[in-house]
Specification:
This protein has about 375 residues and is of the alpha/beta class. The protein is built from ten helices and 15 strands. It binds S-adenosylmethionine. The site of S-adenosylmethionine has 21 residues, from helix 6.
Length: about 375
């Protein structure tokens, strides 16, 4: 079976590596997605265990069109009763970039008619659309004249892990937080600190990695559980297998924030994820922190500046540079921001740069290696 795992821009390689590790075949990274092959067991496993997939789609047809009618005809040829019954509900998510359709919703309506007519001809009944809580979620992708119709096996996006109740004003997407940690090469053998942790997404995702807790453990539902061929026994066996591997973290993880309210929210989220013994949260200004040892990892997601005055944000980024230089010798620091102007105030030369997206915001992820002794990290 062919599958498509969707992800955020910049995390395609990380997701491809995860999929190989989970046993996927013919893994191919493309823009914001990774194509792979496998069986039903792998589909369940990827949904339960992937930290950087946003959703996993199962393509059921692809064909080329010359007109709108070709979409109806192609959609009618799919054996829909393999996936749903006439009494089921469904919904269609259209993603259209095609000269044949000026209006995205219209393509979805054509496919909806094709599905309804398919069942009406066969059974005299037709499934109804339920946009809020459908039994089957169908993804209609049209790029120029190429139509791909898939069924979404996740439905609720996989970044919705289920542990987050409290969130600060600008929380990181969980998939992005996990992706940054995996991209950094952190392997739970060095302590990890997030000194601007907000609601605690980075420390929690790091804790899940360190304790080998599958990211799907807190979720109540995956789309494939409503499929006609859902194998509950197989899914339970997969979950038991991974849950058995959950263990103690070999390292401590720290989060702190200048805001008392943010720290409280982070503590609540840490407790909800069962990581209170692994992740410690406290209130602190970053400038007052010092490295715990000389080989730890630091992850910084500072404010981007939308809610601060320009000079305040520049001062904040300058403080980050000075604190890293003076208080964190030997530390590998990763910083993600969308504010490229203020970033110049950090004044350190990055070892690596990656472009990522935090929602619609283009961000840059930088790696700084803070040397001890004579090697100077400062630009000038
Ligand atoms: C973009 S938010 C971090 C969001 C977080 N990654 C999450 O997922 O919820 C930036 C955080 O930096 C904190 N902050 C701002 N200045 C700080 C400082 N000087 N020291 C420590 N934290 C600071 C803010 O209170 C805010 O919670």
């Amino acid at each position: 079976m062919k599958f498509v795992a969707k992800t955020l821009y910049g995390l395609e390689k990380v997701l491809a590596e995860e999929l190989v590790g989970l046993g996927a075949a013919d893994v191919q990274a493309v823009n914001r997605a990774v194509l792979f092959k496998g069986d039903k067991e792998l589909l369940y496993r990827v949904n339960y265990c992937s930290r950087t997939a946003l959703s996993v789609l199962m393509p059921v047809a692809d064909f080329r069109i010359k007109s709108k009618d070709d979409l109806y005809n192609g959609g009618s040829k799919i054996e829909w009763d393999r996936f749903m019954d006439a009494d089921d509900t469904f919904s269609i998510v259209p993603v259209i970039n095609s000269p044949h359709f000026g209006h995205t919703g219209y393509a979805g309506l054509i496919l909806k008619d094709a599905i309804a007519d398919y069942f009406r001809k066969k059974t005299g009944r037709r499934p109804s659309v339920d946009a809020g809580d459908p039994r089957i979620l169908i993804n209609l992708h049209i790029s120029n004249d190429l139509v791909t119709i898939s069924i979404d096996s996740s439905v609720v996006p996989l970044f919705k892990r289920g542990y987050r109740q409290e969130q600060t004003v600008a929380p990181l997407n969980e998939v992005l937080a996990a992706g940054i940690i995996l991209l950094s090469g952190w392997k739970a053998s060095a302590t990890l600190t997030d000194p601007m942790c907000g609601s605690g997404t980075i420390p929690i995702e790091a804790g899940l990695i360190a304790c080998k807790i599958p990211p799907g453990k807190f979720r109540k539902f995956f789309g494939f559980q409503r499929w006609k061929d859902f194998d509950e026994e197989l899914f339970e066996k997969i979950k038991r297998g991974y849950d058995k591997q959950i263990g103690l973290s070999p390292v401590k993880i720290f989060g702190s924030d200048i805001s008392e309210q943010a720290s409280l929210q982070a503590k609540t989220n840490v407790a909800r994820s069962g990581l209170s013994d692994v992740v410690s949260i406290k209130v602190s200004d970053f400038k007052d922190l010092k490295a715990i040892d000389n080989q730890s990892f630091l992850f910084l997601n500072p404010p981007y500046g939308q809610r601060l005055q320009p000079d305040e944000i520049d001062l904040l980024y300058r403080m980050i540079g000075t604190t890293l230089k003076h208080n964190f010798p030997g530390t590998t620091a990763w910083l993600i921001t969308s504010n490229k102007e203020s970033l110049k105030n950090v004044g350190l030369k990055p070892k690596e740069k990656h472009t990522l997206f935090n929602g619609a915001l283009e961000c840059i992820l930088l790696k700084y290696e803070m040397y001890q002794g004579t090697k100077k990290p400062m630009k000038n």
